[in-house]
Design goal:
The protein has 240 residues and is of the alpha+beta class. It folds into 2 domains: 2-126 and 209-238, Four Helix Bundle (Hemerythrin (Met), subunit A), CATH 1.20.120.1220; 128-206, no CATH class. The protein is 60% helix and 10% strand. The protein contains 10 helices and 4 strands; from the N terminus they run αααααααβββαβαα. The chain has helices spanning 2-28, 33-54, 58-74, 82-94, 114-125, 128-141, 149-152, 188-196, 210-223, 227-238, and strands spanning 154-157, 165-171, 177-184, 201-206. It has a 4-stranded antiparallel beta sheet with strand order 1-4-2-3. A hairpin with a 5-residue loop joins strand 2 (165-171) and strand 3 (177-184). Helix 1 (2-28) packs antiparallel against helix 9 (210-223), helix 2 (33-54) packs parallel to helix 4 (82-94) and helix 4 crosses helix 5. It is elongated and about 70 Å long. It starts with a helix and ends with a helix.
């Protein structure tokens, strides 16, 4: 069918955009705004064609986009980056209705816009980093100093602090030793204070390129569907 091929093409186009965004997010932790402008330029003729070909309800389009935009604009206040919000808004504009093509998604659940399902699936996969950090810390430090930092950070030499990270512990301007699970930027003055205090190792937390998780969530959402709905369905049926 024409609609199947059309949505496959849209899926591939936006996947390419997200892959480019992921590259910049991994390499620089900054995604060029021009990339989202390019996405909008590509979007206009595709959505116009979609309106004319499939005759969708404009009101449903607008509600879907508005809901996603409102949630996306709130993300920076929850600790997500601005590029993450732009990626989800671009995705909402690209797919204002959930794409259905060929046999995808395998699990049919279209109660939410694709952008929101992508966000849900992205957040589900993000904790895998915590598991990875826990395993690394367990191998290096053992169980005798087990604490919450095992799941959110790692201990590194003060001379080899990674480029994209935040400090979970630091010495402030008054010389007081502080801890913060949110993390603080490792400025030159903070590092100097810690070295002068004789600190050799420090706990840091990596600044994650969340666009990568959004890309994974996008692929899963289109191919499989809403993992949260699927998990809830499994739990409900297993308990009956």
């Amino acid at each position: 069918m024409i609609s199947d091929l059309f949505y496959l093409i849209k899926f591939i186009i936006f996947l390419l955009i997200l892959l480019v965004a992921s590259f910049f997010d991994i390499r620089y932790r900054i995604v060029p705004p021009k990339l989202w402008i390019l996405a909008l330029i590509v979007l206009i003729p595709l959505n116009l064609y979609e309106f004319l070909l499939f005759n969708y309800d404009l009101l449903n389009y607008l509600i879907s986009i508005l809901l996603t935009v409102l949630i996306s604009l709130a993300l920076p206040y929850l600790g997500f980056g601005g590029a993450d919000s732009k990626a989800l808004i671009a995705l909402a504009l690209f797919f204002p209705v959930y794409p259905k093509f060929y046999y995808f998604p395998f699990f049919k659940c279209f109660l939410l816009p694709l952008a929101l399902v992508t966000l849900i699936n992205s957040v589900i996969f993000a904790p895998l980093i915590s598991i990875y950090l826990f395993i690394i810390n367990l191998k290096k430090l053992g169980l005798h100093n087990l604490n919450v930092k095992y799941f959110v950070g790692m201990k590194v030499n003060i001379e080899n602090i990674p480029k994209f990270c935040a400090l979970l512990e630091y010495i402030d301007e008054k010389g007081n030793f502080k801890r913060s699970l949110k993390g603080v930027e490792p400025s030159n003055s903070i590092i100097r204070n810690m070295k002068e205090a004789g600190i050799k190792e420090v706990w840091i937390t990596p600044l994650l390129p969340f666009i990568v998780f959004i890309t994974i969530g996008y692929i899963i959402s289109v191919i499989l569907g809403n993992l949260l709905f699927l998990l809830l369905d499994i739990i409900i049926h297993s308990s009956t």
